[in-house]
Amino acid sequence: MALLDSADLMNYELYMAEAIAEARRGAEEGETAVGAVAVLDDAMIARDHCRTLLQNDPTAHAVLLTVQATARKLGAKRLSEVTIFTTHEPCAMCVGSLLEGRVRTLVFALSDAKRGAAGGALQLARDASLPHQVAIISGVREAEVLRLGAAEPATA
Ligand SMILES: [Zn+2]
To answer: Is the dihedral of CA 89, 90, 92, 98 positive or negative?
Structure first.
């Protein structure tokens, strides 16, 4: 991991708080408590939460929905400057969307040893055999996400 100065760390905490708020919104709607936000140039440009039950769609994960919304807003080419914040380590599908979008940085709170594809269960995000690797920062506000109680995220 790259060394972070204190200003960077503060922003990470701030944006992760927004991802946690998004996860809570999902939980209030009966979803798994997983949230994500996209940040470009110190501004939040998209945010969403898990919608697999609401949309009856097993692919409606917070990160994937946020990447799609970001691409619609910016045009897909500019995703290379985007940082995605999410409460839970993303699955292979969601990491795939980060790779396809050439997203620069992924920040997540809680690792997922069962399904995480950013080092938890497998390391797809930084696989050197692929043309793009995503920078990863983990553990930001981890204790708060643990308290969200999404024991089986499966939807990050
Ligand atoms: Zn996912």
So the answer is: negative
